[in-house]
Design goal:
The protein is mostly beta strands and 116 residues long. A three-stranded antiparallel sheet has the order 1-6-3. Strand 4 and strand 5 form a beta hairpin. The longest helix has 4 residues.
Length: 116
């Protein structure tokens, strides 16, 4: 559990279409085996420490004739941003994906001094 003792809390949220591979026969739509798509999210303001990040699917367009496999995650989380990662594997055919995220964490406080 992360306890936020700072009274200066920031919340960042966003949404992003990660790919539309059905348009140009991209690898998520035509490929097989392990596939991955990454998007770097950069925060407008730096957090004071590593924030909490929640990601979710808000749109998932798939081929109903194949197995439906997916993994979505936030990786490489830092005070400045994170990587939004979508993965699929096997014979899954994913046409497009949109993901949403919410970030909560302490912001730098001008009253907090670091002497050394």
């Amino acid at each position: 559990m992360q306890k936020l003792t700072n009274n200066n809390i920031g919340i960042t949220q966003g949404s992003r279409v990660l790919f539309s591979d059905y348009v140009d026969d991209g690898p998520m739509w035509t490929g097989t085996g392990p596939r991955e798509q990454r998007f770097e999210v950069v925060f407008e303001e730096r957090y004071a420490g590593i924030p909490n990040v929640h990601v979710s699917l808000s749109m998932w367009d798939i081929d109903h004739k194949h197995n439906q496999r997916m993994d979505i995650a936030a990786e490489n989380i830092s005070e400045n941003g994170f990587d939004l990662v979508f993965r699929t594997w096997g014979d899954s055919r994913v046409a497009r994906v949109r993901a949403n995220w919410m970030v909560i964490g302490a912001l730098p406080n001008e009253d907090h001094w670091e002497l050394y």
